[in-house]
Amino acid sequence: MLSRTADHLFWMSRYMERAENTARMLNVSYETSLLPQSAAAVEAGWEGILSISELLPSYLALYKTITPRDVMAFMVKNENNPSSILSCLRAARENARAVRGTLTTEVWETQNQTWLEVNRMLKSGEFERDPGQFFEWVKFRSHLSRGVTVGTMLMDESLYFMRMGTFLERADNTARLVDVKFHAMQNDFFGAPNYDAAQAQAQGERLAEVAQEYDFYHWSAILRSVSGFEVYRKVYRDVIRPERVAELLILRPDMPRSLHASLNEVVSNLALVSHDRESDTLRHAGRLRSELAFGRIDEILATGLHAYLTQFLERVNVLGGRISREFLMPQAI
Q1: The whole model's pTM is what?
Q2: Can you tell me the distance from the alpha carbon of 18 to that of 13, in angstroms, rounded to the nearest whole number?
């Protein structure tokens, strides 16, 4: 396959997955912002969204304060923000148009219709009237795109590069989400911020109850952002505990959006397009997957979750660069 064609297919899938991930994070933040909480807590939640995508400096250059309305506008329809939902869907459609002859009619029409429809919805004000419904629509279009791709594309290198792009993007986003959301808790991964044992004892049981309620909504929001709330209940059948949330989203191979599951897909599709079984790219990906396959959550938490995820993100970025150099266009790195 021509590297130019592989490049377009790879990034088409990455941008579509990125649009869905952005919609998921915004939807959960929008819903949790409606719960009773302080203005500082609301602002911290929206600031976390910008931090996940490394867009806080770009946002503050346009807006002076962090408000739900401005953050959603910036992350949904700002054409100058390359990670906004509108920009991602446009980029996915443009990459699909560049390789129109490689795609089935169903895949192309799905991408093109998504682009036309999102423009209509934003111009008509449907997003402002019901943000939650808009985010659900973005998720549905991403699901539809993946389903049509798997259901109609020939199982050859074109499909493998598309799948590789999807799951490399998913691994990156899940790691960012877990890192930012867990790091938002003052003591790394336990307890609600601004509450410690001495305060709880001094101020009575009510303070402990508030902290417990905060914990529940915080971890529930993380799970719902990756469609993992029902999965967590089925797997653990217990109250939501942060170390188990971390285990589910990092190490469980049967959790569709976990780091382990995403790397399994990346490695399997990479092996299908790689003609050299000893290539450095394949070995790098395989080593990263093996560490997830044989890792233990207690060891990760003991050495520091933030440090672990920071290193994981660096290695995923290195893997993306290796894939670009070996298979794709050089400027795509």
Answers
A1: 0.87
A2: 9
